[in-house]
Amino acid sequence: MKKNFAALALAVAMAATLAGCSSSATETEAPETENTEAEAEAAGDSAFAGQTLIMATNAEFPPYEYHDGNEIVGIDVDIARAICEEMGAELEITDIAFDSIIPEIQADKADFGAAGMTVTEDRQSQVDFSDTYATGVQSVIVPEGSEIQTIEDLSGKLIGVQQGTTGDIYASDDFGDENVQRFPKGADAVQALVNGKIDAVIIDNKPAQVFVSENEGLVILETAYAEEEYAIAVKKGNTELLDAINASIASLKESGTLDEIVAKYVTAE
Ligand code: ARG
């Protein structure tokens, strides 16, 4: 009884103190009682409510993540935002080299990676992946009129890729390290192609479409080089976050929000 009274007295004292503060401070200090039911339902059970989650990405991959002025935007950003919103968490984005994303997660410097990242066996031994939220296709970009018309024609040619991506890994395996030139960004590889320094670029289809639309004289081969699944990566064993992400992905799929996000960034051909 006495204890309860003391707690009540403290609460009253705090409320009195807060009353003197700015209104925004009052709002953030008293979220529980002021939450609407919907908010409570969305954020209530989440172990991550009120936390800031750090997303590692490489914002050189339109339309999944790219710079728009000072902002990082794209499909993955919107998905991550929607996931965090469901959890009642804040989203913070760290933009790093693509092949630093997994090490950053392993080192606890990021909570998850969202970067149009393909699920591969090798990566699965380093991080845990969420359920997949999109499919990707590795495409081949060549100059218009190129003699490269099929995947086989790539043999002996100089192929540009973004370092550490599946395009890099597959091309190195299939055509030999010496025939693969690695660039920090996909756009750099495309620039080298425009300048005639390399013969082809292997990159995911959606960014390929963006890069081809931004540069004259390039085409995408009709044959796909490889099909893949994109997923969000978390630290191995972080099932709490993984389960929360999977639950959000499922609800974003079911509500149609996922499709809406994709439609916002990908204009139908
Ligand atoms: N899907 C490819 C991979 O996982 C390329 C992803 C590149 N993403 C990026 N944000 N640069 O290797």
Q: Name the overall outline.
A: elongated
Major pleated sheet: 6 strands, mixed
Helix- and strand-based class?
alpha/beta
The percent range for helix content is 40-55%
Distinct small molecules bound, one entry per kind: arginine
Unreliable residue stretches? 1-37
Radius of gyration, CA atoms, in whole angstroms: 23 Å
Q: Write the CATH architecture name of the largest domain.
A: 3-Layer(aba) Sandwich
Succession of helices and strands: HHHHEEEEHEHEHEEEHEHEHEEEHH
Integer average pLDDT = 88
Distance between termini? 69 Å
What is the count of DSSP helices, taking H or I runs of 4+ residues?
Answer: 12
**CATH domain class name of the largest domain:** Alpha Beta
Instruction: Report strand %.
Output: 15-25%
How many independent structural domains? 2
Look up the CATH topology of the largest domain.
D-Maltodextrin-Binding Protein, domain 2
Oligomeric composition of the shown chains: single chain
Number of strands: 14
Protein model, in words:
The protein is α/β, with parallel strands linked by helices and 269 residues long. The protein contains twelve helices and 14 strands. It has helices spanning 2-19, 23-29, 31-34, 37-43, 75-87, 101-106, 121-124, 166-175, 186-194, 205-214, 239-255, 257-265, and strands spanning 52-57, 60-61, 65-68, 71-73, 90-95, 112-113, 127-129, 134-143, 159-162, 180-183, 200-204, 218-220, 226-230, 233-235. The strands form three sheets. Strands 8, 9, 10, 11, 12 and 13 form a six-stranded mixed beta sheet that branches. Strands 5-1-6-14-7 form a five-stranded mixed beta sheet. Helix 5 crosses helix 11 (239-255). Residues 57-58, 60-61, 64-65, 98, 115-118, 136, 162, 165-166, 204 line the site of arginine (ARG).
